[in-house]
Design brief:
By secondary structure, the protein is of the alpha+beta class. Helices cover about 50% and strands about 20% of the residues.
Length: about 290
Amino acid sequence: METEKMRHEIVTSNPDVDVRFYLSKDEGSYVSPHWHNSLEIVYVIKGKVVLNLPRGVKVTASDGEFFMANPREIHSVLAEKNEALVLQIPQRFYDKYVPSMHLRRFFVDMHPGDEVERTKLERLKKIFTDMYVIYDVRPEGYLLRFNSLLYELLFTLIHSYSEKLLQRDFERDDKYFNRLKDIMDFIDENHAYGISTAVIAEKFGYNPDYMARFFKKYMNCTVTDYIYLVRIGYVHRALVNTNDSVADIFERHGCTNHHLSMKYFRNQYGCTPREHRKKEQSKYKT
């Protein structure tokens, strides 16, 4: 469903394995705040990718480095030109093998000071790259090897790159997540209208100042920023998939402040809507 993709990324597994695994080649992009029910691991082969997490946490991964986004963790991604291996492991997959997996939070220190930890990290990288080689070449019985590497990767992550939350801490984080999800859903469903921090605060019974601080703390952007990120996301898809005029598309998706809307569009795509449409449509010409 189109509207769902704006706030909740639906992760679809590869046809032959129970995870999503692929080589990403990105010329540079921005993915607005979103969440999914999968553990996402990105191994940057070359280039640079910045992951923005709640509470102002920012993780930068360059050549030969990882980052991880936990299930139901709202995050945005700013990428320069890069190539990266992306692995998304649905929660339903690892829940079969590890009780209370939802209490675990995964992380990786890319610059460990200890020699033992550096050796572990190199081993983790090798497992990841071996997974790609076997999946790319696909010799007879490749699924046996791929799945054995996947299980080894998960075992390593659980024992060396995760911590277990207390139940009360999980419940606290889940409460905040559900509040944000409700706000994100409301913004998505009403992005075409004249919504504002005050309107949203009234809808959910919050003090506007409190809601603005709460949203900024966990989303790394203001409410206004997020409203326009959602609008510009819809504008992008309409530009690519229709021949409607830019003015009509902007109006349809709530971008009635032309100057401000153009500012957000340029910040996200680095060009005007017409230039963006031309560039995107040229990709499909034979």
